[in-house]
Amino acid sequence: MTAKLLPEPERWSERAAAGGPSAEDAIGGSLRRIKAATEPSAATAARWAQHAMEAGPRPPAATRVWSIAIVAAILGGASVVAASVAWRAVVHHAPAPGSESDPSKASRQHRAKMARQEAAPAGVEAPAPAAVEAPVPAAVETPATAAIETPPAAALLAPPTETPPAAMATPQPAFVAPLSVTPKSPRPAPRMPASAASVTPVFEPAPLPAGEASRAATPTAPDEALLMARAFRRLRNEGDARGALAALDERERRFGAGAFETEAALARAEALVLLGRGDQALPILLGIRDPHAGLTPEVRVTRAELLARAKRCDEAVGDFELVLATGAPSATRERALYGRASCRLQGAAPDRARADLEQYLVDYPDGRFAPVVRAALNRLPGP
Amino acid sequence: MRVRGEIVPGRAGSSLSVTKPVDPPVFDVGWLYRTYAAKVGRWAARLGGPSIEAEDVVQEVFLVAKRRLITFRPDGNGKITTWLFRATERIVRAARRKQRWRRFVGMPDDDGALGGDTAGPIPGEELERRQEIARVYRVLDRLPERQRRVLILFELDGLSTQEIATLTGARVGTVRVWLYRARAAFLEHHDQLMARDGKSEDDRR
């Protein structure tokens, strides 16, 4: 079916030629004059074309208005932000750097907590110093374990003879030798000696849930926390110290100091000790100044043990004493007492060393180092 | 990109029936300006009325054309004409909105293409011509936009309803309906205006 079209009407502008008296005729006359007035001449058209060609890229008015509005909005927003910052600076006194109320630090600690939660198994609340406490028993070859495994100065630990032992005569204490253990190759999974079971870290990292682990292991995850989680997982769960170091290197390359500077330093120290590179771990531990997130008693005693191994007993004793003065966990205190006795023997202070050794046997008669301590006491000259 | 010669059916003398250059060496902006400046200016002056400066519209249209020429793909006869017409119509509509806003806030109108040079004294005949043009456009401005456009293209530009349909993208039947309604509305408004002007004239006397 075809629709019937209206016929094309007659133009008014052509009726005017007839000169009739109707309104259409008058309108037609007007239209014809308008038509003539709006018909550009060839010169006018050429001028328009020329002007159009010469015209620069002028933005349309609407674009200009929008541009002005956007610029004004940006400037206004920037002014508001600046005023807000100034107001906060005036009204709220900025906290001293390093203080607990330091917002940047608070943010950093919050992010550290989030990372720890990331690394911890679901449903288990990881304690704050988790990343710190773990390195100690797993990584550091404590004097006791070293002495038991390899009694290098057997002669020095032998029963005292008539003459004072050479070790006693010269400042070569019996307890120094165990600290100078040759580096050990990294173990596939760091295991605690049976005797050191009590030194189980507060945070015992467990395998991450599957989803969590895969997310943390995603190499493209740009999150610093994920890199930290990866480092801890390799270090604690897989015993892969080199992999942990690689993850820590990547974190440092991407984020520099970042929000987990202290935790990364501790993890790196742990990995280095695990690799037998205690000499490299020591400067890292010496660089940690944060007493809350960094220098826990376990870290402090580990640092002291490394200092003692490096024959820097003067510095080590300070850490040992600090640990003993503060209510450190029993296993940590045991190590500190043993280490201080060792350093005091190095420092040719047998009386004070004897006191520590005797105290050790009182506190830990069945302790990890008890046999060695008894042997040393037997060799020491009597009071 | 090459452009085929634009062969548009139309009545002799109508603006769309002008023979276009066939196969220009390159589809460049200069060729576009030279070929279509008169047509765009004519559309601008007639659609815009006395308050719109046609040359400004021409420049705006060709600035838009220059910006978008690279994406233009002519795929049929009259396509570039349609494209330019729609750009012209949009710009004229924006200019008219701006004029209405200026009137609303009490600012004087710009002198348009039909306004001429007002610096010197205006002869009586010229003044009468301007008043006549202004009256026609006052009536046209009362029409709905589609009817106004169709009536202008039909009466002033001399296009057939088929050509108008091509330009506006509407069907011929629709264009004719719009045209009939526009003519009826125009007559009605014209009579009202004439009656009011006559009454005012009588009142002045």
Structure explained in plain terms:
The complex is a heterodimer of chains A (383) and B (205). Chain A is an all-alpha fold and 383 residues long. In chain A, helix 18 packs antiparallel against helix 19. Chain A is rod-shaped. Chain B has 205 residues and is mainly alpha-helical. In chain B, helix 1 crosses helix 2 and helix 6 crosses helix 7. Chain B is globular. The relative contact order of chain B is 0.12. The N terminus of chain B is likely disordered. Classes of the chains: A mainly alpha (383), B mainly alpha (205). At the A-B interface, helix 2 and helix 3 of A face helix 1, helix 2, helix 4, helix 5 and helix 7 of B.
- Proportion in helices of chain A: 55-70%
Taking Cα atoms only, what radius of gyration of chain A do you get, to the nearest Å? 41 Å
Proportion of residues in β-strands of chain B: under 5%
Largest sheet features of chain A: none
Which series of helices and strands of chain B comes N to C?
A: HHHHHHH
What key attributes describe this structure?
heterodimer, A: 383 residues, mainly alpha, rod-shaped, B: 205 residues, globular
SSE diagram, text form:
The complex is a heterodimer of chains A (383) and B (205).
Chain A: H1 12-15, H2 23-37, H3 42-54, H4 61-91, H5 103-119, H6 130-133, H7 135-139, H8 143-149, H9 154-157, H10 166-169, H11 210-217, H12 224-237, H13 241-255, H14 261-274, H15 278-286, H16 297-309, H17 313-325, H18 330-346, H19 350-363, H20 370-379
Helix pairs in contact in A: 5-12, 11-12, 12-13, 12-14, 13-14, 14-15, 15-16, 16-17, 16-18, 17-18, 18-19, 19-20
Chain B: H1 29-48, H2 54-68, H3 79-104, H4 124-140, H5 145-156, H6 161-168, H7 172-204
Helix pairs in contact in B: 1-2, 1-3, 2-3, 4-7, 5-7, 6-7
